[in-house]
Amino acid sequence: MSVNEQVLNYPIPSDAALEPPAEWAELRGTCPVAHVTLPSGDQATLLTRYQDVKQVLADPRFTRLLNAPDAARLSATEDGGLFSSDLAAIIPDSGEEHQHWRRLVGRWFTAKRMTALRPVMARMAEDLIDDMVERGAPGDLKASLGFPLPVYVICDMLGVPAADRDRFSYWSDALLNLTRYGKAEIDAALAEFFQYMSDHLAAKRAEPGDDLLSELIAAGGPEDGGLDDMQLLVTGMSLLVAGHETTANMIGKMVSMLLADRTRWERLLADPSLIRATVEEALRFDANAGFGLPRYLTEEIEVSGTVLPKGTTVICSMAAANRDESAFDAAAEMDLSRSPNPHLAFGAGAHSCLGQALARTELQVVLEVLLRKLPTLELAVPAEELERVEGLAVGGLRTVPVRW
Fold it and tell me: Which domain holds residue 54?
């Protein structure tokens, strides 16, 4: 039976952690607008072609707020987690209000700000790598570097004291891992995190610093075009969660891709000027990118000749779209010098990832520091033995065992 005639279960499993499911190519070729069943049992429509995914993601009418009565539930435990809770509704999700919020917060995520942060990031990465080396090989690159670095960076941006970083790591983990923790644990973490951020904001009001939250407070309240207290609090919490798990996982996956075929690593050692293009190619080539972006259609739309009625929940698979041969030459090859590389890893249009300059900078810095400090780095297990993390909204590897 071909993919056209069946309703696939989504997410589609893959045999190997770094490889795409075989169904992607078949879907792009013969069934680009496919019916799928989500973990909740609800039906949705899956898009896998580059043009279609870009079209829906770039359309500002379609938002990710899936609280309409006829929207598909993504998972059976939809009451947990940050983005499906009441907190998610506090930051405006569409229209002029959303753009205003993005402008206020986005000032902290410009390329210029990221350049200023680079030396701080590099120092953090060096310290974490030194700690891993001190503990001895084999090490777990994900736990030692991938996981803590983005938390340390976002804590620095929010003005959170270094001593509190590990508490932040735990809260971020609990709020994103809907399957690893029970509801009581998630609720407790949310309450602690909420209380911490309230106290942290009060301290910033009393003694502002050179950080994102102090600047947002200085912009004034809603009457001055700024954010109210609750929006400030949820912005701080959301930036930690959104900016952490995806980048933490991407660090591990990127290094694994480069070490899975070590000629790639050798090429970077010989020519570090390829680091920037390599990061973009790793983002495009990532076959384990997680769920994709859900969108709720508030009106009828035509995609690839198929009319999708109002009320449809669409899942945009950016990872499948990034392997589309019609958009990328030799799409199944990892080409470290690919240019241009208009991948959709960060989405497209008005809702494209606010923190993409931050993620790019972190990934570039990680490669720069690893190539310099651990040129002999290699995977400590065969690439086919790497295991995916299940039950997460974002894709990732369970561990990244390395030696040097």
Answer: 3-403
